[in-house]
Amino acid sequence: MTVFRSRRVVTPDGIKPATVHVRGEKIEAVSDYDAWPATEERVDVGESVIMPAVVDTHVHVNEPGRTEWEGFSTATRAAASGGVSALVDMPLNSIPPTTTVRGLREKKKEATGQCLIDVGFWGGVVPGNVSELAGMAEEGARGFKCFMCFSGVDEFPGVTEEHMRPAMIELARVKRPLLVHAEVEGPIDAATKELELKKADPRAYFTYLASRPQESEAQAIRIATGLCRETRARTHIVHHSAASALQLIRTAKAEGLPFTAETCPHYLHFAAEEILDGATAWKCAPPIRERNNREQLWEALNEGVLELVASDHSPCTPALKKPELGDFMQAWGGISGLQLGLPVTWTGARKRGHSLERLVKWMCEATAKLAGLEQRKGKIAAGFDADLVVFEPDAQFKVDVQKIQHKHKVTPYADGELFGVVTSTYVRGTRVFHQGEHARELKGQFL
Fold it and tell me: What is the per-residue pLDDT for 40?
């Protein structure tokens, strides 16, 4: 047995002095601070915080097929460095995509023996693959992702309402959630044509922002809400950015629909007014919007309209960001931030008076629930996996890209000042990261 203790342990009952007893891979008990057996292996972190490790349910690992963008080895090292003990990999940008049982098996084969932390997999919903969904669920897919617009890669086509309906009927039957990229093409196409007629500067961030209007998200959410009401399939909106569409989510939840939504650290941290022309590292879809929009996302998190925060780590090779052109309309859209999601979100939460307990609900408990892991991940409680983070919430640091473990160092967080230093990360009782060093033995398992 190993026992951990701290003056500040984040438990479901609040932050308190406590001792965490770990036997094997599980938490056996959480007891009083003074319950400190003399004969056991002991880790006393003093005033440092012990919190549940993050469960990041929105990560694009891109292996196989685009491993030059990222990969399981680098992604799981980065995750461990950032206090993440479990991630769920998105079904695109790998080749083949995870849209068939064969594709899922191939991805698991590629990931075997590479993972420092635990890894789960989302399947994908694309036109014509409804017959594959049950098999992928049996093979271990935690749920399924679809795009209501062009995904950015040809091998993962978007879906319409007509495609979504039969898929959601099937997902309700097999009891798996549908994760929806909620943007539709109509408003995007209209806005883009107008910008082309005006010959708007493609290096200007506000040109790109205008090309992805909030109405695109709103229309998609209206469709998803209607299908959720019709099929009763659990429906989750990923990376929500549009403040004007929050009322639609609020209404769906008030109606009692099985309908949830997330936002991402970059939407909570950055603001459109601060993004320089040509700074394509900031490009993502939906886009980072204005300051007032950002504050409304924080308010929605506080209210519970948005339930969780996940990174949407979507890296690429540096060349795809078109740094030599600074052209937002041509550059790949995706933020690289897996390693920094916890401190980025905590920096904004701390500034706005939110507690560590709220941070844990957003990044550990609610994410675990989305992935169907709420009985084993996301809490410091008896019977749960011993996934722990030793965290210094008041320590400030400057982001040094040379310490980033992602395959590539291009990130909009470079040189930023953040609060919250991860000292150690434990996965099922094994320390996989400590003060900048990673464990040599790869202990990650498939979820």
Answer: 75
Where in the chain are the domains? Answer: 53-377
Task: Give yes or no for a contact between 151 and 158, defined as CB atoms under 8 angstroms apart.
Answer: yes
Report how far residue 432's alpha carbon sits from residue 439's, in angstroms, rounded to the nearest whole number: 5
Contact 82, 422 (CB under 8 A): yes
For the record, the structure tokens of 258 come out as 């099985």
Q: 3-class secondary structure for the chain?
A: CEEEEEEEEEECCEEEEEEEEEECCEEEEEECCCCCCCCCEEEECCCCEEEECEEEEEECCCCCCCCCCCCHHHHHHHHHHCCEEEEEECCCCCCCCCCCHHHHHHHHHHHCCCCCCEEEECEECCCCCHHHHHHHHHHCCCCEEEECCCCCCCCCCCCCHHHHHHHHHHHHHHCCCEEEECCCHHHHHHHHHHHHHHCCCCCCHHHHHHHCCHHHHHHHHHHHHHHHHHHCCCEEECCCCCHHHHHHHHHHHHCCCCEEEEECHHHHHCCHHHCCCCCHHHCCCCCCCCHHHHHHHHHHHHHCCCCEECCCECCCCHHHHCCCCCCCCCCCCCECCHHHHHHHHHHHHHHCCCCHHHHHHHHHHHHHHHCCCCCCCCCCCCCCECCEEEEEEEEEEECCHHHCCCCCCCCCCCCCEEEEEEEEEEECCEEEEECCEECCCCCCCEC
What is the spatial distance between Cα 227 and Cα 233, in angstroms, rounded to a whole number? 8
In tens, the pLDDT along 304-320 reads 999 999 999 999 999 99
For residue 371, the model assigns a pLDDT of 98
d(CA 368, CA 349): 20
Compute the distance between CA of residue 42 and CA of residue 54 in angstroms, rounded to an integer: 23
CA distance 123 to 137: 8
CB atoms within 10 A of CB 168: 26
Cα distance between residue 93 and residue 37, in whole Å: 49
- Please give the distance of CA 114 from its chain centroid, rounded to a whole number: 20
For residue 64, the model assigns a pLDDT of 97
Q: Give the span between the Cα atoms of 241 and 224, in whole angstroms.
A: 16
What's the residue count for the chain? Answer: 447
Query: Domain 53-377 carries which CATH code?
Result: 3.20.20.140
* Closest residue by Cα to residue 310 from 98, 50, 89, 74: 89
Cβ within 8 Å of residue 346, ≥6 positions away: 356, 359, 393, 418, 419, 420
Segments of the chain with pLDDT less than 50: none
Amino acid 276 reads L
Q: Are 222 and 197 in contact (CB under 8 A)?
A: no
